[in-house]
Amino acid sequence: MAVTPWEDELTRQLQEKFGEQILEFSSYLGQNFLVARPEAVIPILEYLKAEAQFDYLVDVTAVDYPERPERFELVYILYSFERNQRIRIKTRIPEGFRPATAVPVYPTANWLEREVFDMFGIEFQGHPDMRRILLPEDWTGHPLRKDVSILDMDQRWVRQHLGIESGQ
Amino acid sequence: MPDSTFLDATELVLNMGPQHPSTHGVLRVILKLDGEKVIGTECVIGYLHRGIEKIAENRTYAQFAPYVDRMDYVAAVSNGLGYCLAVEKLLGVEVPPRAQAVRVILTELNRIASHLIWLGTHALDVGAITPLFYCMREREEILNIFEKYCGARLTTHAFRIGGLQYETYDTFEQDVRAFCDMFLPKVDEYEELLTGNRIWIGRLRNVGILTAEECKAYGVTGPLLRAAGVKWDLRKAQPYSGYEQYDFEIPTGTIGDSYDRYLVRIQEMRQSVRIIRQALDGLPGGPIMGKVPKVIKPPVGEVYVSIEAPKGELGYYIVSDGSTQPYRVRVRPPSFVNLQALDKMCRGALVADVVVVIGTIDIVLGEVDR
């Protein structure tokens, strides 16, 4: 199955409101998503929450594509209890870009964004508490980036803690 | 009383955990107290972080399946179901009806097992020791069924991508039916011990209240959301694995306190039995494995699939780059997201209530930390 365009009442409203800010509306395997410019994400979330009953932020996560100029893809998954509908909002950001936080719109985003920071090193601007959440404070690097390998992490750990060259 | 005495400076920071029996694992909560009153909490998590999502990128789709059981290890079957459904959706594989029905039976049995662990340990935290033994006794029967079915009791790896690995054993139906018949009166027994118990009500009523609005704002799902009066269950809202065929109720509470959550989970166990019985009655014959290619290589694309796990919405966001290994697997863990609301529920409460609130969220640290 291929990616097909997504068109309905909601996309028309969003198109009208945000125009060029939204790059594509698509649907894959029956799941709708849109790709927006990074600065438009928070206004889109605000709009969807206020005007389209998307009152539940399911998840915030990221995917790393090191070979692309805009390296990270940020993904926000929203759900509406009213419509029983789930949509994804995606945006592409380069290394070092600091996207705005979604915490004022959805308090859930707090820990979810902290996890994205912890795992990918994406810092959210305006986040109330931008610290690591799962890894220890003195951890170096962000493990879910594609250039971090689990073998290296393992070796670094055994060298430091067990004093042997490799645990493999 | 003078306006300001040295007693005003009694703000106390207290560490609870990570080694503390009522934090249900290795959760550290830093409490800021004014006497007995909680004025703020902070969770320190990650002690059990194993990098499940990173591991996924280094394994094939089939190899990763057993790892998901290690997240919410008291509901391993649910984890496996969610993962299998997500990969099947990516692959476009149809699961045969028999496999779907057996999946529902095992998943519901696991929901009961998970709720039993919750009930036993929660009651223990509050001071009632007997329910723990009762709950463990009934849970043992479920684990025996799992063991007979797939050889494992806790981290079962019961399902495979596309269906099931094993056909049910000879007395499977009999065993499950016997369990259902035995179990319902036992639920009444738990209720006799707890529902009208003055200490139980005293400790749980009006503790850790989370309204429907707050639940939605914090992304809290599962029994917590239902206890706040929202009739929402993914098995009904977006049915998967054939749940639309079964007739069951979504129990809800009224004010969303710990006692409502207790009632909701008790009702859910009864509803699970109801689903299991229906699934057994209509258990179809036929194959147990769909048409899955020998080498699992989903086409390029991404998918988000979520199920109603015992703790709430468990989602898998899988990105495929067309190779044998997933490009990215993101797990949306219900425990992690629900735990975030701890601070909201604890503020203004007493220290002893923190124990109740941690218990009532029903967290499994393996899933919080992944």
Protein model, in words:
- The complex is a heterodimer of chains A (168) and B (370).
- By secondary structure, chain A is of the alpha+beta class.
- Chain A has two domains: 3-134, NADH:ubiquinone oxidoreductase Nqo5 subunit (Beta Polymerase, domain 2, 2-Layer Sandwich); 136-168, no CATH class.
- Chain A has four helices and six strands; from the N terminus they run βαββαβββαα.
- Chain A has a six-stranded mixed β-sheet.
- The N and C termini of chain A lie far apart (41 Å).
- The model of chain A has no long low-confidence stretch (mean pLDDT 88).
- Chain B is α+β, with helices and mostly antiparallel strands and 370 residues long.
- Chain B has two domains: 1-49, no CATH class; 51-358, Cytochrome-c3 Hydrogenase, chain B, CATH 1.10.645.10.
- In chain B, helix 5 packs antiparallel against helix 6.
- Chain B is globular.
- The relative contact order of chain B is 0.19.
- At the A-B interface, strand 4 and helix 3 of A face helix 1, strand 6, strand 7 and strand 8 of B.
Task: List the topology elements.
The complex is a heterodimer of chains A (168) and B (370).
Chain A: E1 4-5, H1 9-18, E2 22-28, E3 31-36, H2 41-51, E4 56-64, E5 72-80, E6 85-93, H3 109-120, H4 150-162
Parallel strand pairs in A: 3-6
Antiparallel strand pairs in A: 1-2, 2-3, 4-5, 5-6
Chain B: E1 11-16, E2 28-34, E3 37-44, H1 52-57, H2 61-68, H3 76-91, H4 97-126, H5 130-150, E4 159-160, E5 163-164, H6 172-194, H7 198-204, H8 212-217, H9 223-227, H10 234-237, H11 258-281, E6 301-309, E7 312-320, E8 328-332, H12 334-339, H13 342-346, H14 351-361, H15 365-369
Antiparallel strand pairs in B: 1-2, 2-3, 4-5, 6-7, 7-8
Helix pairs in contact in B: 2-3, 3-4, 4-5, 4-11, 4-14, 5-6, 6-11
Short key terms for the protein model shown above:
heterodimer, A: 168 residues, alpha+beta, Beta Polymerase, domain 2, 6-stranded mixed sheet, B: 370 residues, Cytochrome-c3 Hydrogenase, chain B, 2 domains, 3-stranded antiparallel sheet, 13% strand, globular
